[in-house]
Amino acid sequence: MNSMTGFGAATAPLANASLRVEIGGVNRKQTEVAVTLPRAWAALETAVREQVAGAVSRGRINITVSLQHTAGVAAPITINRERLATLTTGLRELESILGKPVDTSLDALIRLGVLTEETENDLPPEEVEAALKPAVQEALQAFLTLRAEEGANMKQDLLTRINTLRGYRVALMERASGVALRHRENLLKRLEESGLPLPADDERIIKEIALFADRCDVTEEMTRLESHLNQFERICDKPEAVGRTLDFLCQEIFRELNTTGSKANDAELAQMVVSAKTELEKIREQVQNIE
Fold first, then answer.
1. What's the rounded Cα separation, in Å, for the pair 233 and 216?
2. What does pTM read for this prediction?
């Protein structure tokens, strides 16, 4: 079992800088892979997307690739000699018109495009491609490892909550087994208070109780609920992606609980169903994070 959320990062040396890859995941019903690359490396987007998409089956995966200059090492400076020559002539003419010197500081030269730092455009494409693939693989492995660790914790939490639902199921069955008897006692009591006492073995009483017992019987619901809980536990142990299947089972479990509450005709039992649904909702929220 894997979580859909996670993070992984890796760096690779590249000329006088380094290439950094970051991979993060968030919840999605389907698989989405978004790649953010410097514009000069756009041709590598498809390869990166395919490399990552093959390792995941659900969730939105965000991949960011950037160029980072090594700390303490200045980026190489390129001098645009043609622009410098043209600019020098223009500056001399401008100084003659203004009658005063024109700013030629380092910042000014950079802004005017005479001096430029090394950028993504200046790196050989084959060098970038050679460094990118292993860096993506390293970041992807860290990402998958974190998802697996988080998935293991989620699995433990889900199994604990499923066990709580088992406890509710037992309590529901015990409470439901006495609903018909309590209805019979209440019916006889109301008849007596109304001045219409009838013996407990009266045919009309027996018929009424039999019909009521049939309407409020939840044996089938409890049997199916047990089956769903067993399936849930088995699926949690599977190595493949199980998020969609668990989400479907949550819907089936809710259906059985809902039907039980509708048929019960018992206030205490209905309250127990509400508590079970609350626990199920916590399970469903957790399942939304599972691949």
1. 29
2. 0.66
Express each pLDDT in 74-88 by its tens digit: 555 566 677 677 777
Dump pLDDT digits (tens) for 205-225.
666 655 655 566 777 888 899
In the chain, the percentage of residues whose pLDDT exceeds 90 is 32
Q: Please check whether residues 281 and 259 belong to one and the same domain.
A: yes
Q: Looking at the structure, do residues 129 and 246 belong to the same domain, yes or no?
A: no
Domain count, the chain: 3
**Residue 101 to residues 58, 93, 119, Cα–Cα distance (Å):** 63, 11, 32
> What is the signed CA dihedral for 53, 57, 58, 62, rounded to 10 degrees?
-20
Distance CA 161, CA 35 (A): 37
Residue 172 shares a structural domain with residue 215: yes
- Residue 264 maps to a domain: yes
* Greatest CA separation for the chain: 124
Output the six-digit token pair for 67: 């160029």
Strands 31-36 and 59-69, bridge-based pairing: parallel
Of 65, 68, 25, the closest CA to residue 48 belongs to 65
Task: Write the CB contacts of 105 (distance below 8 Å, at least 6 apart in sequence).
Answer: none
Count CB neighbours of 19 within 10 A.
24
Residues 52 and 85 in one domain: no
